[in-house]
Write a structure and sequence with these properties.
This protein is α/β, with parallel strands linked by helices. The protein has one domain (2-165): inorganic pyrophosphatase (n-terminal core) (Alpha-Beta Complex). Helices cover 36% and strands 17% of the residues. It has five helices and six strands. It has helices at 2-16, 41-56, 95-101, 117-125, 153-165, and strands spanning 31-37, 60-66, 79-81, 107-110, 130-134, 145-147. α2 (41-56) links the parallel β1 and β2. The longest helix is centred in the first third of the chain and has 16 residues, at 41-56. The N and C termini lie far apart (44 Å).
Length: 168
């Protein structure tokens, strides 16, 4: 029931969010947001490497994660929220999640191959100028830039980084 209310709130956020969306040259981008669901150690390590690469390029990076039940938050490196921080009515009660969604990133990269309802809500609420993620017809309202044909998290990261670097 909670997820049904969250889906309604997500549709409402998509309708009422009037953030001006555009891409700027990646070289000029300063703030990058990374949004993902915690899955396994491999994904965790790929994201850490990506953060390091972006920081070497002079970007200020903020990562935020959704921690599903029965998953481990490796090293507690990233801020996260859980299903317990969503009310019965589908309202997000996590200050960290709301603050992340309200941050005006130059780019927000969703690093999930199958974004869940919690991640989609944050994408819908996001104030990022350009949101990038995996291609899916159902996900088109959430992204300005989508990549296709990726089978792994590392490939998704590589493609998103490659394509955004080409933006002039």
């Amino acid at each position: 029931m909670k997820l049904n209310f969250l889906k309604l709130r997500t549709k409402n956020q998509l309708r009422k969010n009037k953030t001006q969306r555009s891409s700027i040259p990646f070289k000029k981008a300063e703030r990058i947001g990374l949004l993902f669901t915690i899955e396994d150690r491999n994904k965790h390590d790929h994201i850490k490497q990506f953060i390091h690469k972006l920081e070497q390029e002079g970007k200020k990076v903020q990562a935020f994660a959704f921690l599903p039940p029965k998953k481990e938050n490796y090293e507690f490196l990233f801020d996260f929220f859980t299903p317990q921080e969503v009310s019965f009515c589908g309202s997000i009660k996590s200050d960290h999640a709301l603050r992340f969604a309200d941050t005006a990133f130059d780019y927000l990269f969703c690093l999930d191959k199958n974004p869940n309802d919690y991640i989609c809500y944050l994408l819908a609420r996001s104030k990022a100028r350009c949101r990038a993620g995996i291609y899916s017809e159902q996900l088109q309202p959430y992204f300005e830039l989508m990549v296709n044909g990726v089978k792994s998290t590392s490939a998704l990261i590589e493609h998103i980084h490659q394509y955004t670097q080409k933006l002039k």
